[in-house]
Write a structure and sequence with these properties.
By secondary structure, the protein is mainly alpha-helical. The chain has helices at about 10-40, 55-65, 65-100, 100-115, 120-130, 150-185, 205-220, 225-230, 245-255, 260-285, 345-375, 385-415, 445-450, 470-485, 490-515, 520-525, 535-540, 555-575, and strands spanning about 45, 50-55, 290, 580. The protein is built from 18 helices and 4 strands. It has a two-stranded antiparallel ribbon with strand order 1-2. A two-stranded antiparallel ribbon has the order 3-4. Strand 1 (about 45) and strand 2 form a beta hairpin. Helix 9 (about 245-255) runs antiparallel to helix 10 (about 260-285). The protein is globular and about 65 Å long.
Length: about 600
């Protein structure tokens, strides 16, 4: 019997070619603005007067008077409670949902999705601003503590913790569930074609690596906190709640001194760069990969019949042991993910999962009640108009399609075609310093570039300036790497098509983030006709004519409904099949 000719893999040279757009995008929108920010930090002046070179004087003054250290310490303190939620609460909830079985796990995914699509930093902060009114409703009355310099820091920490509880826990659970999905199948799993899935020797290594990455990402995102501080306190009273992003904004744009603002941005960028490099090294050293569980793979706890013995003369794949001359071949048992470890969804596991989900929903509802109450009481205003929604979503979606599309091409090249072989993921170190960098640390340089091109106060300026999404590049590379280990299909059918939905999911996620960003549209749009919904909300809060803020302007019902349907479909049809694996164990295929 003649074995079929295996599909020819594309040349690794194509991998280098696919990575070129991402390299160019990184050079244009990340490397050059970074160098420009560093150069600006060595100067004094800005918009109102000519810039002059002063060397490291800005750094000496910034670090010498303790201004930077005070802001850095307070910013880190804002991350403390969300970090505990991400690395303690989230993995416990993920384990409970994973052991509860199929429908509790999927129900949990749907409930967590609602926390993601409805999150708006400016909207949440605007809801808590209602607590400063004399007739403050319920929990929002806690905001009264923001008036006193002695109590303002602690109050803002509690508000940030409550306002971000749902979205932080939801995102972290989404990261931990794939590690639990396949990590506990020490004997592997097989689909109907005889493809054997990855064997990883336990859930511990995958959960540990994901936990480290979640912790690093939480700290990195927290270091760039801007919206809560600007809306609720503007750094006061008496600068007691100044954050790093707020300090940069005040120095560069309120005081019109680019040098001190760029100094804060540079120091923040150095910290973020180190965190990005550490995270990328952890990924590459642990040989992390993401793959898809076949649709035919049984759920944990199900009984799977073994395959019947083949007719005489037909070769089989000995997965259970060596071939013994003269003996009938033995079909490999099909092991469901987790079944080998005995984690079937029993009555106790299901009960624990349901109780854990109910407790999470109760806590999330209490924390989100000021926002919910604010949305129900929101008046119709210009912040929620069609014009502001167009300003919000068209640039956000356009920027997401470009940045994720460029990242996807590079991921196909690096992760799918493996131009450096097994060590190809180390190429991600080229992009690692900007893994967690948002618009803030590069805001001064990008604003100056927009002004030099004459694009300030134009619709085009609302498009986020990042041409490549480095977080999307990392995730998609790991997915393409895991899919490339499957040798039962060619590159198009085995890597490109299965990874394409993830590119779409990440584009949607980046679009949501772009739409809820306050800093960049606040910098480049001063005309009210160009205000995005978050900027319009911010302007409304500073107006003496608005009786109540339009809390729901950034999360209109139609947008939330469409996003929720898309996210739920993605959760049930795709994300629930993801599996995170470590240590470089390859997917085994049956020998012909």
């Amino acid at each position: 019997m003649t074995s079929p000719t295996p599909p020819q893999a594309p040349s690794p040279a194509l991998g280098w070619l696919l990575a070129v757009p991402a390299l160019l995008g990184t050079l244009i929108s990340l490397v050059l603005p970074t160098a420009q920010t560093i150069w600006l930090s060595l100067q004094r002046g800005g918009v109102l007067r000519e810039s002059t070179y002063v060397g490291f004087a800005n750094y000496g003054r910034l670090l010498g008077d303790g201004e930077f250290w005070r802001a850095a310490w307070f910013t880190l303190s804002l991350v403390a409670i969300p970090l505990l939620v991400a690395v303690v609460v989230a993995p416990l909830l993920a384990v409970a949902l994973d052991r509860a079985g199929t429908w509790p796990r999927r129900t949990g995914r749907i409930a967590l999705s609602l926390a993601i699509v409805t999150f708006s930093p400016v909207g949440v902060a605007a809801a808590w601003m209602r607590g400063l009114a004399p007739d403050a409703p319920g929990l929002a009355g806690l905001a009264e503590g923001l008036r006193d310099p002695a109590t303002a820091p602690g109050t803002l920490r509690l508000i940030v913790a409550a306002g971000t509880f749902g979205v932080v826990c939801a995102l972290a659970v989404m990261a931990f569930l794939p590690a639990l999905r396949a990590g506990s199948a020490p004997q592997g799993f097989s689909d109907a074609r005889g493809f054997s899935g990855p064997s990883r020797g336990g859930v511990g290594p995958a959960m540990l690596v994901v936990g480290v990455l979640v912790a690093i990402a939480t700290v990195a995102v927290g270091l760039q906190t801007f919206s809560f501080g600007l809306v609720l306190t503007r750094g006061g009273p008496e600068r007691s709640t100044e954050t790093l992003a707020g300090l940069e904004y005040d120095s560069a744009f309120r005081m019109a001194e680019f040098g001190p603002g760029a100094s804060v941005a540079t120091l923040t960028g150095v910290i973020l760069g180190v965190l990005g490099i550490v995270a990328t090294v952890v990924v590459a050293a642990s040989r992390l990969s993401v793959t898809l569980i076949p649709r035919t793979a049984p759920e944990p706890g199900t009984t799977v019949p073994t395959s019947p013995a083949p007719p005489a003369g037909v070769p089989t794949a000995p997965a259970a042991g060596p071939i013994v001359p003269g003996a009938a071949p033995v079909a490999a048992p099909v092991v469901a993910p987790g079944a080998a470890a005995g984690r079937g969804a029993g009555t106790v596991g299901m009960a624990v999962g349901i109780v854990a989900l109910v407790v999470f929903l109760a806590v999330a509802l209490v924390c989100a009640w000021p926002w919910i109450d604010g949305v129900l009481a929101s008046p119709t205003s210009e912040a929620g108009s069609l014009r502001s929604q167009v300003n919000t979503w068209v640039p956000a979606i356009g920027g997401a399609v470009v940045s994720v599309g460029v990242a996807y091409l590079a991921a196909l090249g690096i992760g799918g075609l493996r131009p450096l072989g097994r060590g190809s993921e180390w190429l991600l170190l080229v992009f690692a310093p900007w893994l967690f960098v948002g618009t803030g640390p590069l805001g001064v340089a990008n604003w100056q570039n927009m002004r030099n091109m004459g694009l300030i106060d134009s619709f085009l300026a609302l498009v986020p300036p990042l041409l490549v999404s480095v977080p999307a590049l990392l995730v998609l590379t790991l997915l393409c790497k895991g899919l490339a280990e499957r040798t039962d299909k060619d590159f198009f059918g085995g890597v490109f098509l299965p990874s394409l939905p993830m590119a779409g999911i990440l584009a949607g996620a980046v679009a949501l983030m772009n739409a809820q960003d306050l800093l960049w549209p606040l910098l480049v749009a001063q005309k009210p006709t160009l205000f995005t919904a978050p900027v319009a909300q911010m302007a409304q809060l500073g107006s003496f004519t608005a009786a109540k803020p339009d809390v729901g302007a950034a999360t209109p019902l139609l947008v939330v409904a469409v996003a929720l349907v898309a996210v739920v479909a993605a959760q049930l049809l795709y994300l629930d099949r993801l599996a995170i694996t470590t240590n470089g164990s390859r997917a085994r295929t049956a020998a012909a």
